[in-house]
Amino acid sequence: MTTQTHVPFTIVLALAATLMIGPFSIDTYLPAFPLMADSLGVDIHAVSLSISVYIFSLAIGQLVGGPMSDHFGRRGVLIGGLLLFAGASFGLAFSQSLNALLLGRALQAFGAGWAVVSVPALVRDRVRGQQAAKLFSMIGLVMIVAPGIAPGIGSLLLRLGSWEIIFVFLGLYALAVIPLLLVTVFRGPRPPAPVRDAAGPGVLARYHAVLKTTPALPFIGWQAATFSGLVLFVTYASYIYQIHFGQSKDAFALLFALNIVAMFSFNLLNRVLLSYVTSLRILQAATVAQAAGMVGLLFSATLDLPLAAFVVSMMLYAGSLGAMSPNNNACFLEHFSGNSGSAAALMGATTFGISGLLSGLTTLLPHTLVTIVLSMSGCALVSFSFMLLSLRRPR
């Protein structure tokens, strides 16, 4: 595919809509956790496990889908993943036990993995360097809308029916994305399958080629640590706001959306700064901002400060990801002219795999705000360590 310096906004919108599958799948059903717990006969923490299962399975789906997209092409893998996601979503609407819910979420995430891993590869197929960072930032700017409105959509759907309707909505959304992709990203004659590169067609050979690119590997750990902290918050957001702070479903949706406003603001600032500062420098500065937010959360939780103190600190912590994620992706994929699908898969699988595992392990800990925040602080500390290491390796 020919590298471009400009990508039409319709393509940006289609790619962002595809990535929105992820936050919609996680955030839309958060307000329904208490209802789902009652319906399935379990406690709310058992329902929270479905997030961990989803995220971990998403990692597996990316590991499989990435090399497939390199070998067979992006189109079939991406659309196939959306179809699998839609089918699993409709099946989840009929879940009558926790085991059925967890199995459905695993299948749903596997399909989502095929879809979302294709997007960074499609970006890398078109642009590179600062242009790639700007495109990732633009895609992020659009898809940030998803986690902001997802809990609100969930609350609205709960007014129309029971929690099952949320999964019907997710299935219909995935099906709606397919024609959007066909008339934008994949418009015109079907492109030939990618040329097999020196790594060969084998999955292991492709991943071996990626792992040999040692300058790129720190960005994987950086991203995994950063994202894991956010996943821990999302996993327990319903507990934090609705149970610990005693907020209603509607108030929860609003409080959750404030984090998205912060991410949106950081993303806008990032797009401006990219015209003057390198991606790595912005990533480093955003990591410092995340650490500052984490300090605020620690004070808020340990000193039992009012809700407002927690919300402001959380906005700084979550908002920093609006600048961290696009720049981390750009810095990482800059090292791969070939095997970009496999590289994106390794990045995504490691990120989601570690975050899903950590999220699942925290269900074994006491369910208190202090425990949750301490777990998040460990992730922030690792992320900050990668930032310090990057200062010693100028690009």
What does this structure look like?
The chain crosses the membrane at residues 7-26, 46-64, 76-94, 106-123, 135-153, 165-186, 216-239, 251-270, 364-389. It is a multi-pass membrane protein. Keywords: Cell inner membrane, Cell membrane, Membrane, Transmembrane, Transmembrane helix, Transport. One of its GO terms (cellular component) is plasma membrane. It is found in: Cell inner membrane; Cell membrane. The protein is mainly alpha-helical and 395 residues long. The chain has one domain: MFS general substrate transporter like domains (Growth Hormone, Chain: A), CATH 1.20.1250. The protein is built from 17 helices and no strands. It has helices at residues 9-19, 21-27, 33-40, 44-72, 74-92, 98-126, 129-143, 145-160, 164-183, 203-211, 217-244, 249-273, 279-302, 307-319, 321-333, 340-361, 369-391. Helix 1 packs antiparallel against helix 9 (164-183), helix 12 runs parallel beside helix 14 and helix 13 runs antiparallel to helix 17. The longest helix is centred in the N-terminal third of the chain and has 29 residues, at 44-72.
